Every structure is written in C-alpha cells, then in structure tokens.
Amino acid sequence: MLTWEDCLGCCDVEEDLVDAVAEHEHLPEMLALEMTNYLVHTAEGGPRLKQIILDDIDAARARGDLAHAARLVATMRHFIDYARAHHLKL
User: Fold this and answer.
1) Which end of the chain is less congested by CB atoms within 10 angstroms, N or C?
2) Helix, strand, or coil here: 14?
3) Where are the domains of the chain?
4) Mean pLDDT, to the nearest integer, of 21-37?
C-alpha cells in the first residue's frame, strides 16, 4: 500500500502547493495531489495554480487569518521559484 509520502515523492510538487489546491478546490489531499501534479505538467497549469494561491491568500486575509495568509505568501514564493526552475509560464 502506498502512503501519502510515497505518492508525494512520486510527484514533482511541494506539499504546501498541494495544501493550497486542496483548500481552494475543497478536495481531499490525495485528489489535490493528483490535480496539482497534473497542472504543473500542462501549459495552463502555471497560471491556474498561481490564481489558486492568490485566491487562498485573499480568502485568508478576508477572514482575518493573517498567519495562514503569510504561509500562503511563502507558498507563492516557493511556487514562483519552482515555476522559474521548471520553465512554467505564469
């Protein structure tokens, strides 16, 4: 049986990005992992993931959860670095 860590290790994404997708799309982590991995390998995935993170940041700020918003800003920074390293269009 594969664990969450096994599946994450087989994908080319970071856990914080998967968490942002799970939050935005209201998906269980495993489905969010599949969706995130798919998106990073498509032309439209970069802009969509960027918007997902931005939406999550806005939602966290709107409900006054500034600590979560700060974590999501860090997620955005990681994603931008990832996108540059993997030549993803944002």
Assistant:
1) N
2) coil
3) 13-85
4) 95
